[in-house]
Design brief:
By secondary structure, the chain is of the alpha+beta class. The protein has five domains: 87 residues, GIY-YIG endonuclease; 141 residues, no CATH class; 147 residues, 2-Layer Sandwich (Nucleotidyltransferase, domain 5), CATH 3.30.420; 164 residues, Nucleotidyltransferase, domain 5 (2-Layer Sandwich); 49 residues, 5' to 3' exonuclease, C-terminal subdomain (DNA polymerase, domain 1). Helices cover 42% and strands 16% of the residues. Strands 12, 13, 14, 15, 16, 17 and 18 form a seven-stranded mixed sheet that branches. A five-stranded mixed sheet has the order 9-8-7-10-11, sandwiched between helices. A hairpin with a 7-residue loop joins β4 and β5. α5 packs antiparallel against α10. The protein is globular.
Length: 659
């Protein structure tokens, strides 16, 4: 419930701070700091709103970052909640939807991958990313795709479970190569009985659940039994599986102990940057680490009361790192680490799996935070701050990996900033100010002999590529293979909204025109771009073509301009050219992947459409039955004829045309 509205006048006296603070309730809730233009500056939770919000406006000394935020506050709004736990959930939702400038925000453009064991009669193991359901078994999440694929390889070697799609499995007439090399038991052709395959699946499930030794003992018993019955080939196969499983257990022996499911969280700060490292342990297996560099965590930008404000007698208790914690990363700001870890836990576990054990270097958990975790998990969650034994080693490794990730990030950031400045100097755009705002957009055209033409636009800003702002354009209505017409259409569609009244638009951020528009091409492409920009009334001075050098060799590119400037050959050692090549190559990659996907979709439909007698309904039934064109191609004539509406003669025609 809002307690203060926007003042009628922008002058500070219009907001009566004293009256506002006197009206605040001593109740749990969420507060929102609002700046000029209704900009959301910060969102926080409080056990006692009156004490918490008042702590920001104490006369005591504030750190520079707190003073910076407070100086921008025009009003404060609050929402009362039933408990601090409810306030925590509301705070998390508001941070994700509003992206306030001074909150720590962990952005992750991808969901975590899982290992999936399907609910099929002969279950399949597969890499999976997305929402889980009850029809299959899911293990994870894993910190990376590599960790999932490594686990799949283990399951193939030890348990020989299938990885083929159901449509392929249903239409096999002979076993695939994986069967030949001992990575699959061949259930598709009856090389293994249903009961034996089910036993292998059961053993794999126990292995993933941490029952390594139990599974190893079971395989050993089966091997001895087969040897005693003189089934030596079977015994040898089981021996090989024991050997593969033993190697996996040996690799994990130094890092795990038991069948623990745990997450290890460590945070470090350096150079004004913050890194949170998450290490995942599932079923006693250390699956790897993932480092996060949150937005809004740069020193001087993160809001929250400083030590002086928190020390005020009426300030509410806050999460604090434990002074007696022996294992903790060196840090310039314990307060920042505490806030970062709390923000990470809330935002990460709002959707991700919550393991029964969290090993954390830093803060003592707030009761509301523990309540949140236990509600998400549906069980008790142990928060361990002073681990012993192998858990202590996990934490030490997590801290070390966080420091290494931070060092790599700072080195890459410094190199990238140097490249940005070099390009700005080369093009005369370096006015001595902050180059983080320098925006580059790059266009490329991709097609296959004129088929599925697609243009890409990638964005570089703040010294990094910005995938969330990438765009693709499906090019239609042009002569196939006409790259000039494709570039004209892409540029016109991208910048039509910037068309002025005849006056060239400025390069300012408000106009949303990039400082540099890179065109992957030489004079011809740049001339097309110049014509488009002049028609739209935009500044042609931002256009820069990247013409390939002699023999198309990397490092010999020439920069071509649309405003009459002489071409520039930066040279293969130029830091500016390295940045140009990075952005151009990303545009090329983005265009090619989009074109291939579009082409594959078109070809899948067109190959069936070319067959007389296969209309939209029959095509849909075929694709639904066999899971795609690949499944249809793998089907026999009898299988095709079993589809509703497909006669024997039509099935023979489909089979003939696809083979």
């Amino acid at each position: 419930m809002p307690m203060a509205g926007k003042p009628d006048s922008p002058a500070p006296p219009a907001f009566d701070l004293r009256q506002f603070l006197s009206q605040l309730p001593n109740l749990p809730g969420v507060y929102r700091m609002i700046g000029a233009g209704d900009a959301l500056l910060y969102v926080g939770k409080a056990r006692d709103l009156k004490k918490r919000v008042a702590s920001y406006f104490n006369k005591g000394p504030h750190s520079p970052r707190i003073a910076l935020m407070i100086g921008k506050i025009e009003r404060v709004e609050i929402t009362v909640t039933g408990s601090e736990a409810e306030a925590l959930l509301l705070e998390n939702n508001l941070i994700k939807t509003g992206a306030p400038r001074y909150n720590i925000l962990f952005r992750d453009d991808k969901s975590y991958p899982y290992l999936k064991i399907s609910g099929h009669e002969f279950p399949r193991i597969a890499y999976y990313r997305g929402a889980v359901d009850r029809r299959s078994r899911f293990f994870g999440p894993f910190p990376s795709a590599w960790a999932v694929r490594e686990s799949i390889q283990v399951l193939q070697k030890v348990f020989r479970l299938r990885t083929c799609e159901d449509s392929v499995f249903a239409n096999r007439s002979r076993p695939c190569l994986l069967y030949q090399i001992g990575r699959c038991s061949g259930p598709c052709v009856g090389a293994v009985s249903k009961d034996d395959y089910a036993a292998d699946v059961s053993a794999a499930l126990r292995f993933l659940g941490g029952g390594h030794r139990e599974v190893l003992a079971e395989i050993e018993a089966r091997m001895l039994e087969a040897a005693a019955a003189l089934r030596f080939e079977e015994a040898a196969a089981l021996r090989d599986r024991m050997s593969a499983l033993g190697k996996v257990m040996h690799q994990q022996a130094m890092e795990t102990g038991g069948d623990t499911d745990a997450d290890v969280i460590a945070a470090v700060t350096r150079g004004g940057r913050l890194c949170v490292n998450l290490a995942m342990v599932r079923g006693g297996r250390h699956l790897g680490d993932k480092a996060y560099f949150p937005a809004g965590a740069v020193a001087g930008n993160v809001a929250g009361p400083d030590a002086g404000a928190d020390a005020a007698p009426d300030a509410s208790p806050e999460i604090r790192p434990d002074a007696g914690l022996e294992i903790r990363p060196e840090s310039a700001s314990d307060e920042l680490l505490a806030e970062a870890i709390e923000a990470f836990v809330v935002q990460h576990y709002d959707e991700a799996f919550v393991p029964p054990v969290l090993i954390v270097a830093g803060p003592k958990p707030d009761p509301a935070l523990l309540d949140f975790l236990q509600q998400r998990a549906g069980r008790q969650v142990a928060w361990i701050r002073q681990p012993q034994g192998h858990r202590r080693k996990w934490l030490e490794l997590a801290i070390q990996n966080a420091e290494l990730a931070m060092a790599r990030s700072l080195a890459e950031e410094g190199s990238q900033k140097a490249r940005t400045r070099a390009l700005a100097q080369l093009l005369g755009l370096d006015d001595g100010g902050d180059l983080g705002a320098l925006r580059i957009e790059c266009f490329d055209i991709s097609h296959t002999m004129g088929e599925a033409t697609q243009a890409s636009c990638v964005v570089y800003q703040d010294h990094a590529m910005r995938p969330a702002e990438y765009r693709r354009f499906n090019i239609e209505g042009i002569e196939p293979g006409d790259d000039y017409a494709a570039m004209r259409q892409a540029l016109a569609r991208r910048y039509a909204s910037l068309a002025g009244d005849g006056e060239p638009a400025s390069r300012g951020k408000a106009a949303r025109l990039p400082d540099i528009v890179l065109i992957d091409g030489g004079k011809g492409q740049v001339e097309v771009a110049r014509q488009v920009f002049e028609e739209l009334g935009l500044d042609v001075g931002v256009l820069v073509g990247v013409a390939k050098g002699e023999g198309r060799r990397v490092g010999l590119e020439t920069l071509v301009f649309a405003d009459g400037r002489a071409p520039i050959v930066p040279g293969r050692e130029s830091a500016a050219l390295l940045l140009v090549a990075q952005v151009r190559d990303e545009a090329h990659r983005f265009a090619i992947t989009g074109m291939r996907a579009r082409r594959a979709k078109a070809r899948q439909a067109s190959r069936l459409d070319e067959i007389d007698g296969v209309g939209p309904k029959r095509r849909q039934r075929l694709l639904a039955r066999f899971g795609g064109l690949r499944g249809i191609m793998a089907a026999s004539v009898d299988d095709l004829a079993s589809v509703d509406g497909v006669s024997r003669s039509l099935a023979e025609e489909i089979y003939r045309r696809l083979h």
